[in-house]
Amino acid sequence: MSLDFSHLLGAAQGYREQARAALAERLAQRPIDAEQRAAHGFAWIATSVAALEAVTGWLDANQGGTELDRQVALLAFAETLGQLCGGLPMGQNELLRPGDLGLGQAGRDLAHACRDLIEVDHAATRAQVAQALAAGQWPSEQFNDGELDAIRDQFRKFTDAEILPHAHKWHLANDLIPDATVQAMADLGTFGVCIPEEFGGLGLSKLVMCLVTEELSRGWIGAGSLGTRSEIAGELIVMGGTPEQKAQWLPRIASGEVLPTAVFTEPDVGSDLGSLQTRARFDGRNWVIDGAKNWITHASRSDLMTLLARTLPDAKGYAGLSMLLVPKPRGTQGNPFPAAGMTGSEIEVLGYRGMREYALQFDGMQAPADALLGGEEGQGFKQLMRTFEGARIQTAARAVGVARRALELALDYALNRKQFGQAIVHFPRVSDKLAMSLVDFVLSRELSYAAARAKDSGKRCDIEAGMAKLLGARAAWSNADAALQVHGGNGYAMEYEISRVLCDARILNIFEGAAEIQAQVIARGLVGGRN
Fold first, then answer.
1. How much is the pLDDT for 528?
2. Buried b (16+ CB within 10 A) or exposed e, 452-473
3. Helix (H), strand (E) at residue 147
4. Cβ of 25: how many Cβ atoms within 10 Å?
5. Whole-model pTM?
6. Quick check: 461 and 526 in contact, CB under 8 A?
7. CB 76 within 8 A of CB 26
8. Would you state the pLDDT for residue 163?
């Protein structure tokens, strides 16, 4: 089936603009929180169209792509446009329909403009895509850049050799990623990808960070996420640190000598960081920290905490927050928190293991006088916000890696599991799941790359980062759920790797800003609106 993707994309873009206008009209009358469903629905529309733009760019970069590329693009357009016209999933039981935004006629117009695509049964195309996967074919992934393609190859080989054979065993035992594996990752430059060369890093782009995280997360989300802490700490210090702080910390982070942890959220405070209560006061010689933090990843084995605390108690909300660089001794199995004035307890979790989650308590813990990031109080929230774009792009990349691994496991099982005298890959409902999982993987992958390129261009890209995370998290969960279904009852057994991948996938829609937060950021950024 030959289609004009530019025509279809133009129709989708026109629908997005009508949705934007409809939302703006509502927000002129009511605050955005009163129109949350409409605002978040528009965010999903904009994200879906952005994903189609990214896939179109992918085809163009590959001179139209292979036959498999074009089949994937066809299914991506067919499914996405069908959802825009009929019902766009914002959640498992939340479908946005055109009428919800007063776009009934616009939806019908879009359906008419795309009728040659969405009124067609694409069963044959889905079957061909599944057959290509079964034959070992994958859509184009090269960047047409020797350095980028070599980096992907290097990290894929490392993941295949050092992560995949062990990840499920580590998960079941709730083990930390072994020190030897962490060192091997450090030797590859994992922790210094974006740290400038003058400070011992590689000085590479966010796009490189994206593909490194994707490949490591394909092996285990814990491996991909280990670099996130170094990415956040490194960016905080590069962008806001004093020359002395940069010289002290960046080379040690880049080499893996220092493993950072991000200490932001609190027991009753998730996304509402303006309500943080942890206090830090300067006593003339040291900073003294009191309070509690929650959901702190890798807190025990880390050497440095980037800690957000209230240092200006009379300043309201965000204005009173400062970022501290708090060194701590690395914990051990027998003594996880040896620092004076600091205690912690592990939070047992379903997945996302390898670093462990903790609730922390601070009772007079001391940090040195030069711990204040940039040497200036009241800048902590602004400093943190500047890192959110990179962190969310990296989370999108983690989701892409998880989505691919789920598909790999489903494909392998479908090829080897025989029922009724044949491999189950030949059953249409199984091959359909494989084909559409591949489509969702490519959509989310290309959108994450687009966000990384936007970040590398130097522009503000909180919207692009939010879109990449929003779509990537949905793809990871959808692919993991479909893969477990392909496994049948065996998928529910803990001995099968897909059980871990499903648990790992679920967190992606929550951390680094839940899906609802991403949708709010996107809608507010594109349309505005009153609080």
1. 81
2. bbbbbeeeebbbbbbbbbbbbb
3. helix 146-158
4. 12
5. 0.95
6. no
7. no
8. 97
Whether the pLDDT of residue 56 is over 80: the answer is yes
Domains and CATH numbers, the chain: 260-378 (2.40.110.10)
Check if 147 is active-site: no
Cβ–Cβ < 8 Å for 324, 287: yes
Q: What is the pLDDT of residues 334-357, one digit of tens each?
A: 999 999 999 999 999 999 999 999
Residue at 413: amino acid letter: Y
What pLDDT, on a 0 to 100 scale, did the predictor assign at position 273?
Answer: 76
Question: Which helix H or strand E contains 310, and what residues bound it?
Answer: strand 304-310
How far is it, in rounded angstroms, from Cα 259 to Cα 374? 20
Residue (of 451, 453, 471) closest to 463 by Cα position: 451
Q: Tell me the residue type at 120.
A: V
| C-alpha gyration radius of the chain | 23
CA 23 to chain centre: 27
Which residues lie below 8 Å from residue 380, measured CB to CB, with a gap of 6+? Answer: 308, 309, 311, 321, 322, 323, 373
Q: What is the mean pLDDT of residues 18-37?
A: 94
Q: Cα separations (Å) of 238 from 228, 230, 235, 384? A: 15, 12, 5, 12
* Residue 183 region by backbone torsions, left for phi larger than 0, else alpha for psi between -120 and 50, else beta: alpha
Give the span between the Cα atoms of 125 and 91, in whole angstroms.
27
C-alpha distances (whole Å) from 395 to each of 52, 240, 388, 484 are: 20, 22, 10, 22
CA distance 412 to 404: 12
What are the pLDDT digits (tens) for 385-442? Answer: 888 899 899 999 999 999 999 999 999 999 999 999 999 999 999 999 999 999 999 9
Across the strands, what pairs with 289? 280, 365
Q: Which regions of 369-509 does DSSP assign to beta strands (E)?
A: 418-419, 422-423
Given the residues 35, 408, 512, 516, the one annotated as active site: 512
Distance from C-alpha of 64 to C-alpha of 57, rounded to nearest angstrom: 9
Say which amino acid occupies 198.
Answer: E
Q: Which of 228, 233, 226, 149 has its CA nearest to residue 199?
A: 233
Tell me the pLDDT tens digit for each residue of 130-172.
Answer: 999 999 999 999 998 999 999 999 999 999 999 999 999 999 9
